[in-house]
Design brief:
The protein has two domains: about 120 residues, HAD superfamily/HAD-like (Rossmann fold); about 90 residues. Helix 6 links the parallel strand 4 and strand 5. The strands form two sheets. Strands 5-4-1-6-7 form a five-stranded parallel β-sheet. It has a two-stranded antiparallel ribbon with strand order 2-3. The protein starts with 10 loop residues before the first strand and ends with a helix. The radius of gyration is 19 Å and the shape is globular. It has about 240 residues and is an alpha/beta fold. This is Hydrolase.
Amino acid sequence: MKGVDLEGIRVISCDVFDTLLRRNATAEPGRVRHVAERAAAMLLRERGLLVSKEALWRARRNVQHLAYRALDMADPTGEVTFDALVQGMALSLGFGPAEAQVLARAEIEVERTQLAPNTSLLTWLTRRASEGIRIIAVSDTWHTAATIRGLLDDLAEGHPIAKVYTSADLGATKRTAAIFPKVADAEKVPAGAFLHIGDDAQADERMARSAGLRPHRIFPPRLVILERRLDAARARLARKMPER
């Protein structure tokens, strides 16, 4: 974080995934399959239900696809919520509320195994907090702020994040820049007094700048990016190969 201009900055807002908490080398298709495997095991153990991981994976993929298509038509600046996703999966599988809760817990358990704190950034932020700069998190995610707060508390004990804002809670995203004015209003601080840190060129850099914030982009380690691309390629190949 050398060379970051903090002149006039009163609030530092940080992206969460791959910024405050870094994902491992598992690409998104692999992560979803891990969630399906965990959910299948938990449903059998806790509810006595034998459900294949493939059925769970397909339900998740289909519901997520339909949810975002509907959102694009109804509210392009909004966000799909995790609760809606889980309820949609449960409905498609003929599950009740208890099974839906298992699906939700499986997702969070997998998140905990695949995330790790960005210790160098968190150390830098802690120093800035000691200097009187307020530190917050702003995430494009279907999770609520309470869920993100729980992940931060569990995985980055002693973190300096004073407040968490998510697109699911606010119904606005970074990728459209709509969330930034809402956060600035909530913080009662002008956009020009924010430094926003994140890994995404569009959401965290271009959109933050367009909303009047001062952006600073960080990058996941190159080896992790390469390993994710390989993991995603393996997943695509596996879908094309016939089952034996």
